[in-house]
Amino acid sequence: MQPFVLESSAVRLEVPGAADVEAIVEACQDPVLQRFTTVPRPYAPADARFFLERIVDHGWATGREATWGLRGPGSSLLLGVVSVRMRTRDIGFWTTPAARGRGLMTAAVRLVADWALGDGGLDQLHWEGYVGNDASAAVARRTGFTYTGVGPGTQPDRDGGRPLCWKARLRPVDERFPKQGWPDLTGGAGEPPREWLRPADVDDSAPETPGTPRRPEDS
User: Fold this and answer.
1) pLDDT above 90 covers what percent of the chain?
2) Which of 205, 71, 182 lies closest to 133, judged by CA?
3) 188: burial class by Cβ within 10 Å (0-12, 13-18, 19+)?
4) DSSP class of residue 123?
5) Which of 13, 132, 145, 176 has its CA 20 to 30 A from that of 107?
6) Bridge partners of 91?
7) Distance between CA atoms of residues 49 and 78, nearest Å
8) DSSP 55
9) Which of 208, 187, 54 is closest to 119 using CA atoms?
10) 149, β-bridge pairs
């Protein structure tokens, strides 16, 4: 599968590369990201290069996983990563601390989900996040995923166990708006996380430009 770009008026998604090593290393020092993902601890430049070569490049080459780096329009700064595992039909993502609460990952997940359930050929897309990962769940909820319950994660954690995860599903016929039935994601604060809110300066509902296949060096 050849890498390609997805973009809308809010975000641009392109394959991360060697120029992003420093940004990836910096992002993976974040305690929140370390808590809710399985990135190595400590995280070094060698880990970022392994990720780019063995996960990103290999995933595209084999068609097993499609991974994009999240950037703002006209910017080269990496703000996050979103990927789809084609065989298991699941989506995963993370954002840098500075990019959270701005609606950017919601816009990115909408783009990727529409591709995966359209040209990507998937009949459904799964999301799961560790119980307590309210921000990730809020993105999935806003994108239109339907909450399906709690259970052991499909991916092992650092210790090889199966952590308890919230789970959700999105199908091609599902409308892309928040559904009822999700757990309380307010953390007891009585109001939704910022990721639920649509900032006035981010229009992630604008018509999206279909991804145009490109060679890695062109993206």
Assistant:
1) 83
2) 182
3) exposed
4) S
5) 132
6) 84
7) 15
8) I
9) 208
10) 167
The Cα–Cα gap between 181 and 27 comes to 32
Q: Tokens 């070094």 — which residue?
A: 44
Q: Where are the domains of the chain?
A: 4-200
Q: Tens digit of pLDDT for each residue in 148-195? A: 999 999 989 999 999 999 999 999 999 999 999 999 887 544 344 444
Q: What is the DSSP letter of 178?
A: P
Give, for 167, the enclosing helix (H) or strand (E).
Answer: strand 164-170
Nearest to 192 by CA among 142, 131, 128: 142
Q: Return the CATH architecture of domain 4-200.
A: 3-Layer(aba) Sandwich (3.40)
The two most distant CA atoms of the chain are separated, in Å, by 47
- Say if CB 37 and CB 82 are below 8 A apart: no
